[in-house]
Amino acid sequence: ILTTLSPALNIWRIRCPGSAAIGLANVATGRLDGCLEFRPKPWDCAAGYPICEGAGAAFHFLNKPVFPLHSFSPDMESCPFRVGSAIFHQEVMGALERNKPD
Known about the structure:
The chain has helices at about 1-10, 20-30, 40-45, 50-55, 85-100; strands spanning about 35, 60, 80-85. The chain is α+β, with helices and mostly antiparallel strands.
């Protein structure tokens, strides 16, 4: 995926802060053009989800949506997501499709 996204790395501001919450805050404030997370838990993005949507960033879960949250367990599955501008989504989804395992 990184090889496929390498042209975009020269255009977008991309960082890996190690925290989904910080990544979402950076997207909401315009510090980042987008954020792609593969292993966050629902509590990692619970506050940033509405903040990003309120700031105008499009938020998409890569699997099924987890909000509204109907139950809670420390053993909950991860909820991979992407959030950012329309162009960011288009480029990321294209890269994911091109690198989909057989």
